[in-house]
Amino acid sequence: MFQFMTSTRIIFGEGALHDSLSLLNQFGYSALLVTGQDQQRSQQLEQYFKQQNMRYQRLVIKGEPLIAMIEELAAMGRTFCPDMVIGIGGGSVLDVAKSLAALIPNQGSVYDYVDVVGRNVPLQVKSLPFIAIPTTAGTGAEVSKSAVLQSAQEQVKVNLSNVELFPDLAIIDPTLTYGMDSVLSGCCAMDAFTHLMEAYVCGEPNPLTDMICEEGLKRISMSILAACRDDHYPSRSDMAFAAMLGGMARSNAKLGAAHGLASSLSGRLNAPHGLITARLSPYVMAENISVAIELGRSDVLARYQKLAVILTMNSDANIEDSVQWVDSILTKLQLPLLSKYGLCNTTFEEVAEDALRTCAIKGNPLPLNQQRLITILEQVCYRCCDYHSHD
């Protein structure tokens, strides 16, 4: 038995934002507009609000969504009293907007509703209508039920997760990703890859997420380099579609050790989440394959075998080819190494210990103990040092 949930309505395609503006009226006549620093991306929305005489307030988000920031913005939002919340931007912007839609009508602190460092109690009151419009192709937050927030005090990332957080409307317009910086594009693309890869090999897959993951991974394999390096528009569309599928997959299956370790590291390193999961993923994949061989888990090995076939587009691919494909893509995308952000200065024992407490790691296809997680971190660090010694 399985269940599947996603955003109430999804509109996908080039020009989707322009063609969907009139749908906003069904949610009311005042909007809290949450954006990134690039005002140009939200220009269409602001012009529409003015044409319709809609009341709106714009909040500009810089950097990671800190819990303290969310508390402050929620208090401002309650004063403004919007009918809806609209988020247009990357993953952090959508996570802030999603959190505000949930928290403005609810009493109490953010800590009441988050996991890891909070009480993780259910929302008492229904969220405000929430419209998600991604301008990057990575997190899939536009179709997910969770927002990732950072607790600066505990140096850890936490989840605000509830079925109430699924957007009422997701507008995915690939043109909003055109012209993105190649490194940022690569980090986002590999974030989408890790969502799909971990959901595909996780301990609790289902037939529907399998189908979603296979399609998403196929599109990433075909389009990731042309989208990120050449800004090829049809490939950008493939990546936006794959990111959306990744959001669906992670909301309805499980993740794994790459996300567990990344949650622990994200509070310690000032590095993009997608870059952390990307740099961890080949080592987590290799460790899972190694443990599966030791334990004779043919079901897990069959998953990685199929993954290798999808990624390499070669029906004769070996299991290890999936790991080599990821390594090769990371090199071609020229994504920074984690040593640049201080990975090798962290205490691996503490990172591994914190990772074992995350929800994400519970979905790993096989249980990895603290020592195995430390080994993964040492391998990533060794690779960084080895890379620099050849510069």
List the topology elements:
Blueprint: E1 10-12, H1 16-20, E2 30-35, H2 43-51, E3 55-60, H3 67-80, E4 84-89, H4 91-103, E5 130-134, E6 146-151, E7 156-161, E8 169-172, H5 182-201, H6 207-230, H7 233-252, H8 257-266, H9 273-295, H10 298-312, H11 321-333, H12 348-355, H13 370-389
Parallel strand pairs: 1-8, 2-3, 2-4, 4-5, 5-8
Antiparallel strand pairs: 6-7
Under CATH, the topology of the largest domain can be stated as Dehydroquinate synthase-like, alpha domain
Count the DSSP helices.
Answer: 13
Please identify, by name, the CATH architecture of the largest domain.
Answer: Up-down Bundle
- Amount of beta strand: 5-15%
Largest sheet: 6 strands, parallel
Order of helices and strands: EHEHEHEHEEEEHHHHHHHHH
Task: Determine the structural class based on helices, strands and strand pairing.
Answer: alpha/beta
Number of domain units: 2
Count every beta strand, where a strand is a DSSP E run of 2 or more residues.
8
The CATH homologous superfamily of the largest domain is termed Dehydroquinate synthase-like - alpha domain
Spatial arrangement of strands, main beta sheet: 1-8-5-4-2-3
The first-to-last residue Cα distance is 52 Å
Low-confidence stretches: 387-391
Q: Give average pLDDT, whole number.
A: 93
Helix content: 40-55%
Q: Quick one: overall form?
A: globular
Mind telling me the CATH class of the largest domain?
Mainly Alpha
Radius of gyration: 20 Å
